[in-house]
Amino acid sequence: MSAEIETRLADLGITLPQAAAPAANYVPYVISGSMLYISGQLPMEAGKVAVTGHVGKDVDVATAQRAAELCAINILAQAKAALSGDLGRIRRLVKINGFVASVPEFVEQHLVINGASNLLANVLGEAGKHARAAVGMAALPFNAAVEIDAVIEIA
């Protein structure tokens, strides 16, 4: 399955970046039994936060969806690091939690997080269909527009 995932990534034009180091006192992932917990990932691209500001004010939905896609790419990069490069060990993406920095009037957080959900389902296939939450936040670290964490069942 790892080759399938790598093929899907290539077909989508995605090269996974090096997994980002934590920005504070935490670890980027934890494996406990058959579960992999990925810490919140920001929309990092080329070593910096690519989408900043509040959705509904500074950021439109399409740009925020791209931020969510970047978060998903970074989740996959962390999973690859945690699994010694073998994404084929992913049995199921169990759940993602999507946090959207947004103005109080903005109520389409679910559409923003679809950017991540769609990408993860496209890359992981059936194993990428997941439960999720999509919530609005007053602010996120480094003024990021989106942050997403993940829970993954592994072999």
From TrEMBL:
Pfam families for this protein: YjgF_endoribonc
InterPro entries found in the cross-reference section: Endoribo_LPSP/chorism_mut-like, RutC-like_sf
Organism phylogeny: Bacteria, Pseudomonadati, Pseudomonadota, Alphaproteobacteria, Hyphomicrobiales
Matches recorded under CDD domains: YjgF_YER057c_UK114_like_1
Gene3D superfamilies assigned: RutC-like
Endoribonuclease L-PSP/chorismate mutase-like domain boundaries: 6-146
SUPFAM superfamilies per record: YjgF-like (SSF55298)
Name of the featured protein: RidA family protein
